[in-house]
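Narrative of accomplishments. A recurring question from our advisory board has been how the design workflow behaves on a single, concrete structure rather than in aggregate. To address it, we present the structure tokens for one chain from the evaluation set, followed by the sequence designed for it. No filtering or post-editing was applied between the two.
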């Protein structure tokens, strides 16, 4: 063997040095393997994250999810930002005697939703006259200066002035109120209805309904107690379908309060106030 190598060496000279470095090959192989492993790991992570992240977000939610119910951390529907001036009404209207029957609430049961936050009901008759800011101001003056509102502290909802506000289908006043008898909410609503009465009240849990006469005017008195909440409502409907309703609850924006801030007799004085019309 050595003779052959010597003969070849003589003929062709020494073989050239190898250009391959074994250690370099090993290092290069390890480097490529590490890069490939990292790339594979990132791809798997991205795929898992694409599936997992939406699930986690959907599971946690941000309070109220689309198409879902409010989470336990979401504020209750009756809570709003506190603030705004309160109005003190100092004149107590003279008392009027009515028949001594209980009074009561409305078939909707629970809190009313401000008409300013919902569209007009397409099934409800339209007002006979356009709803305007000028008429709202006139109704505000009539209600607040007539003496029918009991003496107490009134905090408007939403914050601002105690006033009848234009709505898609009429006018409405809403306020937290504290009187000598209790604390809760007062709502006044002027709108149109085809017909009101007590015909369907027996099928509504916790609702009692009566018809009464006040100064020759037929009114509907409702008393609705559902769970720990109570709502009184007195409704007077004019012959043309114009309806003026005064209602009170035993809870404020902040939560349960009570006892009731107004009696049904006081609500009846408001509901039958002369001059309230479109």
């Amino acid at each position: 063997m050595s003779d052959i190598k010597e003969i070849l060496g003589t003929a062709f000279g020494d073989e050239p040095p190898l250009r391959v470095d074994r250690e370099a090959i090993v290092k290069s192989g390890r480097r490529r393997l590490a890069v490939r492993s990292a790339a594979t790991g990132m791809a798997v992570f991205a795929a898992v994250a694409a599936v997992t992240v939406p699930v986690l977000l959907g599971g946690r939610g941000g309070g109220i999810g689309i198409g879902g119910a409010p989470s336990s951390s979401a504020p209750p529907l009756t809570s709003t930002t506190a603030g705004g001036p309160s109005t003190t009404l100092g004149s107590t209207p003279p008392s009027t005697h009515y028949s001594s029957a209980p009074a009561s609430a409305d078939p909707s049961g629970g809190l009313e939703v401000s008409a300013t936050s919902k569209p007009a009901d397409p099934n409800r008759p339209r007002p006979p006259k356009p709803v305007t800011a000028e008429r709202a101001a006139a109704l505000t003056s009539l209600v607040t200066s007539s003496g029918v509102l009991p003496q107490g502290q009134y905090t408007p909802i939403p914050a601002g002035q105690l006033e009848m506000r234009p709505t898609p289908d009429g006018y409405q006043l809403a306020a937290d109120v504290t009187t000598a008898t209790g604390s809760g909410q007062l709502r006044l609503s002027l709108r149109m209805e085809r017909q009101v009465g007590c015909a369907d009240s027996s099928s509504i849990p916790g609702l009692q309904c009566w018809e009464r006469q006040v100064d020759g005017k037929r009114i509907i008195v409702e008393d609705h107690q559902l769970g720990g909440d109570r709502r009184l409502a007195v409704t007077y409907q004019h012959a043309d379908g114009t309806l003026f309703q005064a209602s009170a609850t035993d809870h404020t924006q902040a939560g349960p309060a009570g006892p009731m801030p107004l009696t049904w007799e006081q609500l009846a004085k408001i509901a039958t106030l002369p001059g309230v019309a479109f």
